Amino acid sequence: MHLLGLVSKGVVAICVAMFAIAAQAQTPPPYGAPISLDVAKKAAAGAVAEARKNNWGMVVAIIDGGGHLVYLERMDGTQYASVDIAIRKAQSAAAYRRPSKVFEDAVAGGRNAVLGLTGAMPIEGGLPIVMDGKIVGAIGASGGTAPQDGVVAAAGVTALK
Fold first, then answer.
1. Is 111 exposed, middle or buried, given 0-12, 13-18 or 19+ CB atoms closer than 10 A?
2. Number of independent structural domains in the chain
3. How far apart, in whole angstroms, are the C-alpha atoms of residue 87 and residue 124?
4. How far separated are the first and last CA of the chain, in Å rounded?
5. Tens-place pLDDT, residues 97-117
6. pLDDT single digits (tens) 5-42
7. Secondary structure of 70-82 in the HEC alphabet?
């Protein structure tokens, strides 16, 4: 019975964390048709251009709304670990329909239950890609500091406007 009580408290803590995160943001947009390869390449090009402008080595991953990789670009010299991290940031942004920075801020604010959320990547650099009011995919960037990754991901989203 003691183990059941601990499990129940853990589930409650995760639910509370999700409600707290949801309360911070407006209702996220619904999912739309998956991002096309051409649009994914355009987003990645905008992100990579920003990274080059700042001399930051980056990996940029574009996924569809279901979390499947559509396009990935790893700039020369970027650490290999950033490939998986960029994909996971994008998957987090798509799955939860919000920037991965929301989870980073939650953890920084002491809401560590967020770490128990499946697929939540609590590091800045993952953003949903919204077109015509619907999430068509997400972009993830990794290779610099978290704020640098966020700037690069935002440049990718901006390239689509």
1. middle
2. 1
3. 13
4. 55
5. 999 999 999 999 999 998 999
6. 544 454 444 444 444 444 445 788 999 999 999 999 99
7. EEEEECCCCCCHH
